[in-house]
Structure formats: structure tokens, C-alpha cells
Design brief:
There is one protein chain. By secondary structure, the protein is mainly beta. The chain has one domain: Immunoglobulin-like (Sandwich). The strands form two sheets. Strands 1, 2, 5, 9 and 10 form a five-stranded mixed sheet that branches. Strands 3, 4, 6, 7 and 8 form a five-stranded antiparallel sheet that branches. It is elongated. It starts with a helix and ends with a strand. About 20% of the residues have low confidence.
């Protein structure tokens, strides 16, 4: 009798765990949104140029500049970038570029990006100074 009770409890607990841990993929934020853009810089003579491999930093759940970024990506050689696989929410995106000849660091104020529950891409272009 005692073995039957223990087996019944174990079976009930395993059934509870199996039913309680299922995930419904029809609700919740999409994780296939993206932030795309391009990064240019304005040098001392006022001319604008595409950056070569800009550094893009992303802070999750942020609406303003921060010192704690969760993700850092290197843009393409033409100054473009794409960050894919993002879910709905607030992001703060910042870009920088270091001139390899002069060592001068070009920066910007960054931008708040809000992604919804869709698979669309949001564009965030930056002009560094």
C-alpha cells in the first residue's frame, strides 16, 4: 500500500510538471525584430564619410544613454549594421568610430529604439562628430 501511494504521488508530480511547463508560442514578444542602419562621420573639414566598421552598442530595457551596454557589434566596411533576433521592448543604441590614422574617436548622443511584437526592422542611422 505504501509503495502504491509513493508511486501515485510521483506520477501526479510528474504529470503536474509536464503540464505546467509547456510553452505557448502564440503569445509573447517576437524575437525576430531587428535594428538596422548606417553610420557616417563628419570630419574637421565638414565633409561626411561612411565609417569603416563602426562599433554599435545596444542596451536592453533602456531609453537613455548608459555606461552598461549588453551587446556590442562591429558594423560593415561600408558603415552599415544589422542587429537581428531582438524581442519587443526598449533599446538604447549608440555608435562610435575611431579613425585609424589620427586615433580621433567620433561619437554621437545615441538613440532610443522601441520594438513592437512584429518582425519589422527599425532603422537607426547615426552621424558621428
Amino acid at each position: 500500500m505504501k509503495k502504491f501511494r509513493i508511486l501515485s504521488l510521483l506520477l501526479g508530480a510528474s504529470l503536474f510538471v509536464a503540464v505546467g511547463c509547456t510553452k505557448d508560442n502564440t503569445n509573447g514578444p517576437a524575437v525576430n525584430s531587428a535594428i538596422n542602419g548606417s553610420v557616417t562621420y563628419t570630419n574637421s573639414d565638414g565633409s561626411s564619410h561612411p565609417t569603416i566598421n563602426p562599433v554599435i552598442e545596444v542596451a536592453y530595457n533602456a531609453t537613455s544613454a548608459t555606461t552598461n551596454y549588453n551587446l556590442k557589434v562591429i558594423g560593415n566596411s561600408d558603415g552599415t549594421y544589422s542587429i537581428k533576433g531582438l524581442g519587443a521592448g526598449d533599446y538604447f543604441v549608440n555608435a562610435t568610430y575611431t579613425d585609424p590614422i589620427s586615433g580621433f574617436v567620433y561619437t554621437c548622443a545615441g538613440a532610443h529604439v522601441k520594438l513592437g511584437n512584429d518582425a519589422d526592422a527599425v532603422t537607426a542611422n547615426f552621424t558621428l562628430q
